[in-house]
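Sample log: Acyltransferase.
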Amino acid sequence: MTKGKTKWKVFLEVVSTLQAVSTFLFLGVTCSLLMFYLMFTSLWPIPTLYFVWQVVDWHTPERGGRKTTFLRNWRAWDHLRDFFPIKLVKTAELNPNKNYIVGIHPHGIMSLGAFTCFSTESCGFKELFPGLRSTLLVLAGLFRLPVFREYTMFLGILPVSKKSLVHLLTKRGKGNAVLILIGGAAESLFSAPGINTLVMRQRKGFVRVALEFGADLVPAYAFGENEIFKQVIFSEGSLGRRLQDLFKKIMGFAPCLFAGEHMGILPYRIPITTVVGSPISVPKHIKATEEEVDHFHNLYMEALSKLFHEHKVSCGLSENHELRII
């Protein structure tokens, strides 16, 4: 993947990727510990004022956040894109006069494909889907972390909560593409090269919201997302898996034992191709029945499976790769 690139370009790609990975792994914890430490120093007014501000500003993430074009257009994201590289593929037109809930699969370890395609401008989302605004929704607990919450909101990332979805689908007019990592933390535990396992058979909340607000459903698959890190996968019922599940239940995310190349946290240079499928038309039913929810949930899974099998070979997988939905 470095063929034809200058040493300076390769260096910038590595630094930009390490920045993104380090931010994901350490920025939230580091900011929290720093604020706690400063409370016991002569600089205690700084964290005190910030915590007061955070309380006053507590609901902003669920009310649209504070997106800045500067951070989304940061040149470092172009180098992050080129490191793998990451590509966004369009298979159908999305009408800017409608709202969409886009399911992203698989979650992977860090969801770098989803982040780069939909929370930065480096993959050309605006050019591919003119008139649409992309908003990636992630774990709500991240917005309780001091300073890190501001950084996340500046990128246009918001919490995956009912209040946040209601705001995006009712207060911002049309042309909203709300992106959700359906499998969440549970799915990250299945992320490893050669494995295509999705956790979604019992995940129907996004379908209920789509019916409540008449937002069309769109499946999207990030081929290569599971290939960029190796992970120790514990079998169901093992002590390791029980500890991971317990941690996930308490903290909201799963601790993955993963490794990349060189320094361990640098991902492998495997292409990530995020393919956005065709929209599934969803009527507006404020009080949808379970039968309606199941119907559109099944339609979504069928469309996702079809998308996977139609594009798996062109995106680097072999013909015999199968998609497992649990």
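Observation: Residues 118 and 270 are 19 Å apart (CA to CA).
Observation: The mean pLDDT is 93.
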